[in-house]
Specification:
Number of domains: 1
Number of strands: 7
CATH topology: Spore Coat Polysaccharide Biosynthesis Protein SpsA, Chain A
Strand order of the largest sheet: 3-2-1-4-6-5-7
CATH class: Alpha Beta
Radius of gyration: 17 Å
CATH superfamily: Spore Coat Polysaccharide Biosynthesis Protein SpsA, Chain A
Number of helices: 7
CATH architecture: Alpha-Beta Complex
Mean pLDDT: 94
Strand content: 15-25%
Amino acid sequence: MDERAGIIAVFAKPPRPGEVKTRLAATIGGNAAAALARAFFDDVWEGVGRLPGARRVLASTSPNLEDFGLGDAEVWLQGEGDLGARMEQIARRALEVAPWVLAVGADSPGLPLAALESAKAALLRSDAVLGPASDGGYYLLGLRRLEPGLLIELPWSTPATLSATAARLIERGLSVTTIEEWFDVDDAQGLARLRAELARGTLCAPRTAAALASLKLG
């Protein structure tokens, strides 16, 4: 077994008003959406750091750590192209130095450590792992091997994203494991679920909870 640490790459844009969470911004405003994006990132970044045997990498569109409030972190630029092309570039770089890679977004604050552990365990027996999101996409993609063009020209941000990605992986001969469902926060509906989960205590995202309390969104 390859004993090297795997890579867990957090995909995130700099949390600047007007550039992040645009669907959410339509409801709560650009400044509030950017503040939440920063809080989401903080919680996700802290959360993935708890996964044993994994090396954190920030997969960003900007090399500027100050945008994320980080003094020290490993930053890999996503590069050009659609989301699939950019994910593929990061995954390829990761697999050159590590036995596996997990890619997660910065829009799932409170993502359970158990989900990350399930994904890591799945890659011991499968070539790929998918963490389905409640909107038909996915919050996590893990790979142990990668062929050129594996993720290009997929239907992103649609209810068919997960099924299309799974079909592509299987078509290319990869074995695929699906882990537990979670959710991301892209719009008002996702935000409402987030707030409900925080209120029930079924989700732990302290930076996000503090940002929501400060913003007083009603």
